[in-house]
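A quick aside before the break. I want you to see a complete sequence-to-structure record at least once, exactly as it would be stored in a machine-readable document. Don't worry about memorizing anything.
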Amino acid sequence: MIPSISVVIPAKNEQGNIGRLIKEIHQSLHAFEQVEIVITDDGSTDQTVQEAIETARECQCAVQVISHAQSCGQSTAVLTAVKHAKGDWIVTSDADGQNDPSDMPAMLEAAAKVTNPHFCIAGFRAKRQDTAWIRFQSKFANGIRDKLLGDGVPDSGCGLKVIPKQTYLQLPYFDHMHRFLPALIKRLDGEIVVHQVQHRDREVGTSNYNAWNRAWVGVVDLFGVIWLKHRAKLPVVKDVQAVTAPTGKSDDAYSNDDTI
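That is the input. The structure line, written in C-alpha cells, reads:
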C-alpha cells in the first residue's frame, strides 16, 4: 500500500516552468489518494509564487508554497519543504521541468516493494538532454563519487527521488547535501534502488548551475560525507527488558513532588 505523498520542489525564478510542472504532477498522480505539492520559493525575483498558486487553484490540487526571505540554496530549500510536508513519502523533483512527472507513479510502485524502512528510489537519466560538456562533467563526477562512496548510483544529480519523510529528517544537514542523498541513506543501512527515468530540455529560463557549482564545489562535501560514512554506528539490539509499574501507580511516579 502506498501512503500519503508530498512532492517537494525547490524553486528559484521558475516562472513559466512551475505552472506546467504542477499540472503535469497533478495529472500523473491523480490515481493516488493523498497527494500534495510542496514548493519552497528560494528567493525568487519573478512571479514563481503567483504562478504556482494560480495553477493550484485552477487544477484544484493541494499545494503549499513556503517562501524564503533570501536564497539559501537547493539543499536548504528541499529541507524546508520536507519539514512542511504532510506526506509519509517524499518525492523530490527539480522545478525546471526537465524531470518528467510521468515517471513518478512507477517510482512509487517500486518504493512499495521495499521492506527496509529506510530507502531511496533514485532516478537515473540514461539519456540526458544536456550539452556534451555537461554530460562529461556529470559522468566524471559521478564516477569519482561512486568510487569513493560506493553508493551504487550512476546519477546522483537526478532530481527525481522517493524517500520516506522520517528517513530524510534523520539525515545530517549541510549545504549541497542533496547531491549525496543515496550515500547518506546507505549510512543508515538503507536500501537504494536505481530507477531509469526520462530527461527533457528546459523550455524557459536558464539553469542556476554552472561548471563550478555543479561539480567542483562538491569536492569538499564529498570528503565530508566519507568522514560521516566511516563514523556511522549501527547498533544491533540484542534484547529489551522492561519492568512495568504496579497498577494504580501515578504516571509521574518517577518525578519528585516537593509539595507540602
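Two observations worth writing down. The chain has nine helices and seven strands. Strands lie at 5-11, 35-42, 63-68, 89-92, 119-125, 161-164, 191-197. We'll return to this after the break.
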